């Protein structure tokens, strides 16, 4: 059994693959915990039917969190390898000036999308709405072209509430013309997220001469998806087709699973 770990700023997602199963599924089974509740990870590992010996993961929540997760895994006899971003992995090429500076979770997520696609595929945009929102583009040549980082929906909302004297933690509807403060904040946040996605989708279409697919992930997606889909429909209509984003539950774990499957001799 191979444990897969996605340690983010807010949540800890874990999954597993059974390397001894010749019919091992392409997608890992997965569960999620509060990122600060490492006792939940300890209990989950203790309840597994078989003791895992190996783990593969990414951690973007700091060295202390990574060390704490490593200690819990070692307590259960499981060693962990933290998977970094690289210049190339499984045919995906990294265009970052310093490839290792790309967030390991972003890199794994892109590998996760690629693991779902045939050898020949259109360009795609992956928008992940977590603590931060990241919007990354990969071409049909499997080259990661680059991407955006901006505050996620919750961070935007909290920044307005904590950085101003009179604005609340908003819980309003997303509308075209807000007429109260809650609506104004909720609509502004959704508009900012949607605008960034459409910007990268249009940039991808111009760069590659074909319509990019769009994939979405992250806990902030339900808050912004209607505005994103509406704006994409408006933008896509100019080219005769409206792109429909495909939501992925755990692309980071999917990417780690692809790496684990490619290195079964190491992680068996």
From TrEMBL:
GO molecular function, one term: ATP binding
InterPro entries documented for this protein: ATPase_NBD, Type_III_PanK
Pathway the protein acts in: Cofactor biosynthesis; coenzyme A biosynthesis; CoA from (R)-pantothenate: step 1/5
Cofactor requirement: NH4(+); K(+)
Catalytic activity: (R)-pantothenate + ATP = (R)-4'-phosphopantothenate + ADP + H(+)
Known partners and oligomeric status: Homodimer.
Name of this protein: Type III pantothenate kinase
Lineage of the species this protein comes from: Bacteria, Pseudomonadati, Pseudomonadota, Betaproteobacteria, Burkholderiales
């Amino acid at each position: 059994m191979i444990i897969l770990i996605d340690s983010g700023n807010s949540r800890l997602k874990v999954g597993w693959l059974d390397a001894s199963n010749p019919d091992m599924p392409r997608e890992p089974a997965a569960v999620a915990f509060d990122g600060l509740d490492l006792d939940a990870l300890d209990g989950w590992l203790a309840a597994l039917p078989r003791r895992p010996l190996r783990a593969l993961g990414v951690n973007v929540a700091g060295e202390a969190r990574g060390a704490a997760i490593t200690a819990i895994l070692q307590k259960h006899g499981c060693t962990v390898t933290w998977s970094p971003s690289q210049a190339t992995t499984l045919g995906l090429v990294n265009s970052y000036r310093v490839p290792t500076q790309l967030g390991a979770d972003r890199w794994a997520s892109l590998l996760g999308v690629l693991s779902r696609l045939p050898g020949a595929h259109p360009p795609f945009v992956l928008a992940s709405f977590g603590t931060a929102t990241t919007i990354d583009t990969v071409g049909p040549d499997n080259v990661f072209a680059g991407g955006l980082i901006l505050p996620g929906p919750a961070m935007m909302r909290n920044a307005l509430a904590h950085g101003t004297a009179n604005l609340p933690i908003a819980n309003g509807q997303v509308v075209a013309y807000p007429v109260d403060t809650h609506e104004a904040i909720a609509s502004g946040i959704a508009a900012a997220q949607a605008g960034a996605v459409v910007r990268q989708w249009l940039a991808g279409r111009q760069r590659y001469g074909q319509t990019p697919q769009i994939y979405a992930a992250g806990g902030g997606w339900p808050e912004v998806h209607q505005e994103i889909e509406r704006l994409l429909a408006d933008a896509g209509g100019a080219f005769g087709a409206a792109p429909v984003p495909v939501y992925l539950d755990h692309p980071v774990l999917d990417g780690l699973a692809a790496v684990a499957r490619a290195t079964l001799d190491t992680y068996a």
